[in-house]
Design brief:
Length: 328
């Protein structure tokens, strides 16, 4: 695991060697997925799912969120879930930690990395966090201090970075400004959230270039949704622009409770399939990853949108006799 306390003096994690074919797939299904489900998944089942995610070869997992249990009752068991997980030595557990109160709750858990959160649009930030962007940013220092005092790495995320369902396009400069505020707090790991699926190959490239030019020391992570069917196309552009870390949800779960029309994240197993078939190394076992998506489907009792989970790996061949042939 390469995460280290973000002192600003550590080497940036952005892969610069083109021969480096390693990609980190970050599973966020138990957080971004389960937070909008009406089904309250039992704590023990969440733990089972995270253990299966670890067994599939995923090293980094955004397990839950320490948002107010009143706002998101689906994740009220954040501490219990983290404590129940069977971690491997290289497992890295993350959670959203949006304020000091959340950091207090996270402090005594086995959390490795806490993600600060702000939206790139005022309207979404107010809906999501109930305050304006400036007030959110002003509160971050105290949250970061609390996390570091508990020996939890401080990371950060920017929601609706590629567009807002209330305000439309978000200017790159605004995202750069927020990223700079995070960097000033010593954060060197920032996730760009396409919360409502408004990222396109063109604005993914544009925003990443603007950010890399302004903050070359920061590693950017892409958190993409497939709302409009271009999630994996955006991944390919991210790869071209040097991104080596991607969030994804088993089975394509997810959405945003505070954004109309927001649907699923890119699917973990579809992402793993794309990356492996393109010669990237993920360390994830595709069959096991499909198994996790199946577990999610069984848990929620409805069909999920993942495609590779239906079709299976490319070279999983079928017996000729088992398939009907057209007559004549
Ligand atoms: Zn999301």
């Amino acid at each position: 695991m390469t995460h280290s306390a973000p002192t600003g003096a550590t080497a940036p994690r952005m892969a610069r060697d083109p021969a480096d074919r390693r990609i980190t797939v970050i599973e966020v299904g138990t957080r971004d997925g389960l937070q909008i489900e009406s089904t309250l998944v039992p704590t023990a089942r969440k733990i089972e799912i995270v253990n299966a995610i670890i067994d599939s070869g995923v090293r980094e997992i955004e397990v839950t969120s320490f948002v107010s249990p009143k706002a998101v009752p689906q994740l009220a068991d954040a501490a219990e879930v983290l404590e129940g997980i069977r971690k491997r030595p290289d497992t890295y557990l993350m959670a959203l930690v949006p304020n000091v109160k959340a950091a207090d709750r996270a402090a005594d858990t086995p959390l490795d990395g806490g993600l600060l959160l702000v939206s790139a649009s005022e309207t979404h930030n107010r809906k999501n966090l109930n305050r304006d962007i400036a007030a959110s940013l002003a509160g971050m220092g105290a949250t970061a201090d609390r996390l570091r005092a508990a020996r939890i790495d401080v990371m950060a995320a920017i929601a609706v970075a590629f567009g807002c369902p209330f305000e439309g396009d978000v200017p790159y400069e605004r995202v750069v400004g927020i990223a700079r505020a995070y960097a000033d707090l010593g954060v060197d790991h920032i996730t760009l959230g396409d919360t409502t699926g408004m990222a396109t190959p063109s604005n993914v490239r544009g925003l990443l270039r603007a950010l890399k030019a302004a903050l070359p020391q920061v590693e950017f992570v892409l958190h993409l949704h497939n709302t409009r069917g271009v999630g994996l196309a955006n991944v390919l552009v991210g790869l071209e622009e040097g991104v080596r870390r991607f969030d994804a949800c088993a089975g394509g779960l997810g959405g945003c409770p505070f954004a109309p029309g927001a649907t699923g994240n890119i699917c973990t197993e579809d992402l793993v399939y794309l990356l492996q078939e393109s010669g990237w190394e993920t360390g994830v076992d595709l069959e096991r990853s499909i198994g996790v998506a199946m577990m999610m489907e069984e848990t929620l009792g409805r069909r999920l949108v993942g495609q590779v989970m239906r079709a299976g790996p490319r070279l999983k061949l079928h017996a000729v006799d088992a398939v009907r042939t057209a007559q004549g």
